[in-house]
Design a protein that fits this description.
Elements: E1 2-5, E2 8-10, E3 16-22, E4 31-37, E5 44-49, E6 56-58, E7 66-71, E8 76-81, E9 90-97, E10 116-117, E11 121-125
């Protein structure tokens, strides 16, 4: 089961580090994606890291501000979020899949290939 942590309230320009952990399986065998959904909006993929070559992917809106990384010793995947903006406010969740294409397919198709999905953590960027 995937569990996210690290969300919270932060001022614009601030930083947060989200963590996705699993107690049931080894994350380094899976592509791991971070997704977010704001009220009234569709879920979007923020970032993803595959398990084949460690390739990373970022949505245009977060490029240069967010960094995804694995810590295999801790069995976690983190999302470092810097220079946060009010429009980053959303519920952030992580998903795991053995289908590497999860990192590039439409976010709406991801539920069809996700092996597990966390409950999410709230990120609020506000002054």
């Amino acid at each position: 089961q995937l569990v996210e942590s690290g969300g919270g309230l932060v001022q614009p320009g601030g930083s947060l580090r989200l963590s996705c952990a699993s107690s049931g399986f080894t994350l380094d065998s899976y592509a791991i994606g971070w997704f977010r959904q704001a009220p009234g909006k569709e879920r979007e993929r923020v970032s993803c890291i595959d398990s084949s070559y460690g390739h990373t992917y970022y949505a245009d809106a977060v490029k240069g501000r967010f960094t995804i990384s694995r810590d295999n010793a801790k069995n976690t995947v983190s999302l470092q979020m810097n220079s946060l903006k009010p429009e980053d406010t959303a519920v952030y969740s992580c998903a795991a899949s053995t289908v590497q294409a999860m990192c590039v397919m439409s976010a709406s198709q991801v539920p069809m290939v996700a092996d597990d999905w966390g409950q999410g953590t709230q990120v609020t960027v506000s002054s």
